[in-house]
Every structure is written in C-alpha cells, then in structure tokens.
Design a protein that fits this description.
4-stranded antiparallel β-sheet, mainly beta, single chain, 7-stranded mixed β-sheet
Length: 110
C-alpha cells in the first residue's frame, strides 16, 4: 500500500494550491479519507476529512478556505486550498484507513 502526495510548494499569502493524494495497492471504498498537517514544532492536526458516506469535516482554521474532494472511481483525493495564510505553512499528509503518505510541504510566505 502506498499513498503519494503532490502539489505542495511555495506560495504568497492569498494564493492557492491544490494537493493530490494517490493511493496504490489499496481500494479506499468504505473508508474515511483525510488530510492532516504538521507545522514545525507543533502536533499534527486534522485539516479536512471526507467520510465513507460523504460527510465532510474541516478544521476550524481552514473552514471556508479549503475543500476536500475525491475522484469517483479513482484512488485519488484532493485538497483545494484558497486564500492561503502564513499559518497554513507545514507538511501536509493524506491518510486513508491506517495508512499515511510521506507528506508534501507547503510554505506560505511573502
């Protein structure tokens, strides 16, 4: 099983990024899928979750700015991040069931 994130990078405040997570060797039908992030010196936190039934949940600091989605029939989830702020800086990880990706780094700085 492998989860591979991509789409991170450097962006100015107010900018946007779209993260992708592709799962291989696994089918995530019936499992929750989520994005988490970890800033330097801080604990990993939930950013967004899409449940097996389609329910959506967001961290309070990203609600109304970030959108999680999944590609129907494909082992891919996305995180659209708009109006990025310096405090969004960190390494972003996807999680499906008990599996984690290696992370992709997001740096928001002017």
């Amino acid at each position: 099983v492998q989860l591979e994130e991509s789409g991170g990078g450097n962006v100015q405040p107010g900018g946007s990024l779209r993260l992708s997570c592709v799962a291989s060797g696994f089918t995530f039908r019936g499992f929750d899928m989520s994005w988490h992030r970890q800033a330097p010196g801080k604990e990993r936190e939930l950013v967004a979750l899409i449940g097996a039934t389609g329910v959506l949940r967001y961290g309070s600091s990203v609600k109304d700015r970030f959108t999680i989605s999944r590609e129907s029939g494909e082992n891919t989830i996305y995180l659209q991040m708009n109006d990025l702020k310096p405090e969004d800086t960190g390494t972003y990880f996807c999680r499906i069931a008990t599996y984690w990706g290696q992370g992709t780094q997001v740096i928001v700085s002017s």
